Amino acid sequence: MKISEKHFARLFNILLLLIAVTMIFRKQCTWMIILFVVCCLIFRRKLNFQRESIIFGLIIAAPFLLEILFFWNNSSLSGGLKSAEKSISLLLFPLFIIGNYKYIDYKWIINYYSKIMVLLLVLLLLRFVILYPDMIDKYRNGIHLWEMGYVFSNSFGNHAPALNMHLAFVAILNFYLVLQSFHNNRGSAYKIMEMLFLIVSIFFILLVNTRMALFNMGAGFGIVIIYEIQRRHNFKKVLKTAGLMMILASILFFFFVKNDPYMKEKYSKVTFAHMDKIGRLDEIDHPEINVFNSLVTRVSIWKSGWELGVQNLPFGVGASDGKKELVHYFKETNQVFLAKYEFPMHNQFLDFFLKYGIAGFFVVALYIFTIGYLGFSAKSGVTVAFFLLFFTSNLTDDFLIRFDGIAFSGFWFSLFTVNWLQQKELHHKNNTKLQ
């Protein structure tokens, strides 16, 4: 099939955008990925790889390749296949995204992705208000505010921490685009529109209300500001614009906290409560009420995961058996609360350490820290902010066992590699002209 370079580039970028905005819907995103792969196979002659492309592609595919390498260690064939199936996108994305890097409009994708995601969340909130009026009345009366973000996320088949990881990145992108609109002296209407998208994206992070997302949003804003100052060499202008955005965000945060008293409790008493009970959660009165989402619960899980991982060195327990063996260890060590609710590891480094041994720990570290390398090398505040977001999120959760975490990271990791390659080529061309 013949198609012009211009039309192929347009089709390719639209498909990438569709994958990005459907990432929070597993079924729809899976169909978009299949459509994307079929399209790339039809036009496979357009693939072009450099030495760096192959290196970064192998790093992105490393978790999937680890699944294949350690497939023999699974106790169940079907369990091993199911685990590998979830991570196959880490092979497909670098192959077809990086392989077609010359056709990708990185700025166009992040611009439309950040806006469509906000509009999509507004529609989902309207749907929630219409379909679940009893829940709205319940939260308006201040009842069970702790569950609000989880119920909203579950209403369209998502998990609150995973959703808020996506939303934190959307907010960071919108913040970056606001700074860009002021730097490029866009019209007042355009600047106001960009600020509105930022404010609404911050609102949804507060609505879903997970701790790491709030931290990463704030940290991401700071990283973007630092890199914009370095790139633009206009400290006053960047700081003035960023300051205005921070004031607006603080006002929104103030009114949200005022109307959601649970936030004060969550970020003060709940998070660090009962830290003297690590590994002894059953001594706490009603732990499912008092420490279900507390740090002490995660640290107790990590302690058990580390002990079990050390016992199963050097190759781990297998990808399909990680959670099963962890829950069995809870029972063996008489940790009734953890066994009852069958908690996963909640730490990606320890999760891979348990499943694959030492190799698992190093593959996760290589995967995540290479994103940071791309950001530092390309001097991209957005990429560095994503690195921090995904790194810290995987310290308190395990997103490389979930489709939305696997596909989300693999997709953006591949696009950051594309941005790095395009900047490298541009820099080479500029140097050639100067010579």
Automatic annotation (TrEMBL):
This is O-antigen ligase-related domain-containing protein. Keywords: Membrane, Transmembrane, Transmembrane helix. Its main location: membrane. It is found in: Membrane. It comes from Flavobacterium kingsejongi. Pfam families: Wzy_C (PF04932). It is a multi-pass membrane protein. The keyword Membrane applies. Residues 197-364 form the O-antigen ligase-related domain. The keyword Transmembrane applies. One of its GO terms (cellular component) is membrane. It comes from the Bacteria. The chain crosses the membrane at residues 7-25, 31-47, 54-72, 87-104, 116-136, 156-177, 189-207, 241-257, 352-369, 399-421.
